Amino acid sequence: MKINTALILCAGYGKRLNPLTLTEPKPLLMVNETTLLENCINLIKYLGIKKILINTFYLKEKIEDFINMKKFDLDIKIISDGDTILNTGGGILNMMNSSNESDFLTLNPDTIWNKSYVESIQSMEKFYFSNQIKNILLLVNKNLSFDKKLKGDFNLLGNVIKKNIDEENIKKYSQHGHLPLTFFVFKCI
Q1: Confidence (pLDDT) at 14
Q2: Rounded to whole angstroms, how far apart are CA atoms 61 and 63?
Q3: What is the domain count for the chain?
Q4: Which of 1, 82, 107, 184 shows a CA-CA span of 20 to 30 A to 89?
Q5: The CATH number of the domain where 53 resides is what?
Q6: What b/e sequence results for 152-163 when a residue is b if at least 16 CB atoms lie within 10 Å of its CB, and e otherwise?
Q7: Position 154 in a domain
């Protein structure tokens, strides 16, 4: 991969998974004896990316302890959101400001990543660089989701990605000067 740095979003409260996330951050929940975060890190390592930035806020000490205990053979740096959660866009910007890179692969650890995604990710990266675009987002058909009640953050209408956002979130995110967008591959401009 041409991209050298991956960003992993780990700051959220994981409220949809309460009571599991009342004492454990969502990235550290286990699926088949592997945490969601470790599963995400394993995919990044498989892709050949050597540097990872992880943003934290909620129960951040547990994520820091996990990373220190596992001793991954990658350059992993934890970037705290600070005293206030920055949400998706702010967390990404905070991590970008902690890096000299200009191109990033961003992942949510709550996706059950596996090697079957590698070809799609490599195709996206190739499209991203060959077309010199600013960002590209991997979407999955929401009919394939395990959670049939989940509205999702984005919708694909034809070839146009639409952000699902309600009035409450518009007010909440506009206070921080950004909308809660998650880019899969993007360029720092």
Answers
A1: 92
A2: 5
A3: 1
A4: 1
A5: 3.90.550.10
A6: eeeeeeeeeeee
A7: no
Region of 119 on the Ramachandran plot (φ > 0 left; ψ -120 to 50 alpha; else beta) = alpha
| CA gap 138, 50 in Å, rounded | 21
| pLDDT at site 120 | 86
Q: How far is CA 186 from CA 67, 121, 148, 170, 180, in A?
A: 25, 13, 29, 23, 15
- Specify the pLDDT at position 133: 85
- Mean pLDDT in each 10-residue stretch from start to end of the chain (189 residues)? 94 93 96 95 95 97 98 96 92 92 90 86 91 79 64 64 57 38 45
Cβ neighbours for 21, distance < 8 A, ≥ 6 positions apart: 13, 14, 15, 29
Whether 128 is covered by a domain: the verdict is yes
How far is residue 66's CA from residue 7's CA, in Å, rounded to a whole number?
17
- Asked whether the whole model's pTM tops 0.90, one would answer no
Give the pLDDT score at 183: 36
**At residue 105, what are phi and psi to the nearest 5 degrees?**
-110, 120
Considering the domain boundaries, does residue 151 fall inside one? no
Domain containing 108: what range? Answer: 5-138+178-187
Distance CA 79, CA 164 (A): 27
In a domain, 19, yes or no: yes
User: Over the Cα atoms of the chain, what is R_g?
Assistant: 16
